[in-house]
Specification:
Layout: E1 3-8, H1 14-30, E2 34-39, H2 42-50, E3 56-63, E4 67-68, H3 70-79, E5 83-91, E6 94-98, E7 108-111, H4 113-118, H5 120-126, E8 131-134, E9 151-156, H6 157-162, E10 167-169, E11 179-186, E12 195-201, H7 211-219, E13 224-231, E14 239-246, H8 252-264, E15 267-276
Parallel strand pairs: 1-2, 1-3, 5-15, 7-8, 7-9
Antiparallel strand pairs: 3-4, 3-11, 5-11, 6-9, 6-10, 12-14, 12-15, 13-14
Helix pairs in contact: 2-3, 7-8
The structure holds 3-phenylpyruvic acid.
Protein name: Prephenate dehydratase
Pathway: Amino-acid biosynthesis; L-phenylalanine biosynthesis; phenylpyruvate from prephenate: step 1/1
Keywords: Amino-acid biosynthesis, Aromatic amino acid biosynthesis, Lyase, Phenylalanine biosynthesis
Length: 277
C-alpha cells in the first residue's frame, strides 16, 4: 500500500519540504512508500485527511518570528478528529525570485502572508516601491513570473532551483534564526511522545476562570511549553485556549489531568501526543 501525504502546494513550498521529511520517516516506520499530495490551501490540506482523501497531512503550526499559523489551529478545532503524530522544525531562509534584472525594477511582491511578514523590513528597505500581495502559498505565483518580469516572489531557494528560476536576492528574512514548526496529522490515535496538544473553551468569563484548568496541570507538575488563545468567532472576547504540554497520554499524570480538564472546561479537544522527527 502507498501512503499519501497531503501538504500545501504547488511543489516547492516549505511545507512540501517538511512533507518529504515526513515521507522519509513514514517509509522507515511502516516500510511503505509514500506519495505527496499537494493542496491549494492549508485548510484544504487538513480537510483532505478528515475526508479520508489522504492518510497524513503536514501543516505549519508556528513560526519563531511570526508566531502561530492561525488557520492550522482553527481547523484542528473545527475538524475535531485529527490527531498529531509527529512534529518537525525546519530552518526558513527566504529568497526573492524574479526575472527583474535589479531590485528597483520590482513593482510587486507575492507570497504567503507569513513569508511577507518575515521579510517586511528587508522589503521596505530594499524594494520600497513594491506592493505586496498575499497568496495561499509561497509558490502560488511562481508559474506567472516569466510573463511578469516586474513581479517578485518570496519563496525558498529550493523552489527557485526546482523551477529553474532566477534568485535576485538571498537570504532576505529579517531575522537569521527563522524557523517553522510543522505537525504531521492523521486520523490514527496518538498517545506516545514528548508532548501533548489540546484545546479547550471555558464555562464562564469570570475572574480565575483560566486559573482552574492551569492549576490542574500545575498540581501534577506538568510543564506547559505553549499557550495560545484564538477567538471562538462567536463573539468578541470569547476564546479557545490551545496548550502544548510536556508528557504523553500514556502517562498517569497526563491522563488524570485530561480527565480533570474535561470537568473543568466547557469543551475539551485532545489532539494527541507526539515526538520530534
Ligand atoms: O507557503 C509555503 O511555502 C508554506 O509552506 C507556508 C509557509 C510560509 C512561510 C514559512 C513557512 C511556511
Amino acid at each position: 500500500m502507498v501512503l499519501s501525504v497531503a501538504h500545501l502546494g504547488p511543489a516547492g513550498t516549505y511545507t512540501e519540504w517538511a512533507a518529504t521529511r515526513c515521507a522519509e520517516w513514514l517509509s522507515q516506520q511502516f516500510s511503505q512508500s509514500c506519495v505527496l499530495q499537494p493542496h491549494t490551501s492549508i485548510a484544504r490540506t487538513l480537510q483532505g485527511v478528515a475526508d479520508h482523501g489522504a492518510d497524513f497531512a503536514v501543516v505549519p503550526v508556528e513560526n519563531s518570528i511570526e508566531g502561530s499559523v492561525t488557520v492550522t489551529l482553527d481547523m484542528l478545532w473545527q475538524l475535531d478528529q485529527l490527531q498529531i503524530q509527529r512534529t518537525l522544525i525546519l530552518p526558513i531562509a527566504h529568497a526573492l525570485i524574479s526575472y527583474a534584472p535589479t531590485l528597483d525594477q520590482v513593482t510587486e511582491i507575492c507570497s504567503h502572508p507569513q513569508a511577507l511578514a518575515q521579510c517586511q523590513v528587508w522589503t521596505e528597505t530594499h524594494v520600497p516601491q513594491a506592493n505586496c500581495l498575499a497568496l495561499d502559498s509561497t509558490t502560488a505565483a511562481l508559474s506567472s513570473l516569466a510573463q511578469h518580469p516586474q513581479r517578485g516572489v518570496i519563496a525558498s531557494h529550493r523552489a527557485a532551483d526546482l523551477y529553474h528560476l532566477p534568485v535576485l536576492a538571498y537570504p532576505i528574512n529579517d531575522y537569521p534564526d527563522n524557523c517553522t514548526r510543522f505537525w504531521v496529522v492523521s486520523l490514527d490515535p496518538s498517545t506516545q511522545g514528548t508532548h501533548t496538544s489540546l484545546a479547550f473553551s471555558l464555562h464562564s468569563n469570570a475572574p480565575g476562570a483560566l486559573l482552574w484548568p492551569l492549576q490542574i496541570l500545575a498540581d501534577r507538575h506538568i510543564n506547559l511549553s505553549r499557550i495560545e488563545s484564538r477567538p471562538t468567532k462567536r463573539s468578541l472576547g470569547d476564546y479557545h485556549f490551545f496548550l502544548d504540554l510536556e508528557g504523553d497520554l500514556d502517562q498517569a499524570p497526563v491522563q488524570t489531568a485530561v480527565q480533570a480538564l474535561g470537568e473543568a472546561t466547557k469543551v475539551l479537544k485532545v489532539f494527541g501526543s507526539y515526538a520530534v522527527i
